[in-house]
């Protein structure tokens, strides 16, 4: 019999934090818009969301319901649904934000 010791999580969400000090004004503007666009669409019907269109560059048009990101004066923070993690990482990479400058913790 195996006994697991330590912390075990079956959570479908993670904590997210990104300091704005590590970002250019252009990156801050782009990520703020990304959050706004994705959260704004959360309450839209599936047909309405599909009518907005989706390119290969942005395949994750809507956040899942558990994702809740906040735009503070000095940083971004919040809860990130694990299904949104890949899209957010991909977007941050596309605007030049280094992975070492943000944390996603399970």
Task: State the share of residues found in helices, binned by percent.
Answer: 25-40%
H/E order of the elements? EHHEEHE
**What is the CATH T-level topology?**
Alpha-Beta Plaits
Class derived from helix and strand content: alpha+beta
Main sheet properties: 4 strands, antiparallel
What is the overall shape? Answer: globular
Descriptive tags:
single chain, Alpha-Beta Plaits
Describe this structure as you would to a colleague:
The chain has 106 residues and is α+β, with helices and mostly antiparallel strands. The protein has helices at 25-40, 46-51, 82-94, and strands at 13-19, 68-71, 75-81, 102-105. The protein has one domain: Alpha-Beta Plaits, CATH 3.30.70. It is built from three helices and four strands. β2 (68-71) and β3 (75-81) form a beta hairpin. The longest helix is centred in the N-terminal third of the chain and has 16 residues, at 25-40. It starts with 12 loop residues before the first strand and ends with a strand.
């Amino acid at each position: 019999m195996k006994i697991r010791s330590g912390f075990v999580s079956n959570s479908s969400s993670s904590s997210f934090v990104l300091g704005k000090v590590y970002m250019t004004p252009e990156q801050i503007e782009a990520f703020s818009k990304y959050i706004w666009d994705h959260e704004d669409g959360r309450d839209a019907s599936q047909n309405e969301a599909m009518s907005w269109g989706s390119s290969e560059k942005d395949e994750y048009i809507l956040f899942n319901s558990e994702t809740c990101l906040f735009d503070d004066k000095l940083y971004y923070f919040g809860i990130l649904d694990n299904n949104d993690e890949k899209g957010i990482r991909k977007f941050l990479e596309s605007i030049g934000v280094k992975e070492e400058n943000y944390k996603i913790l399970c």
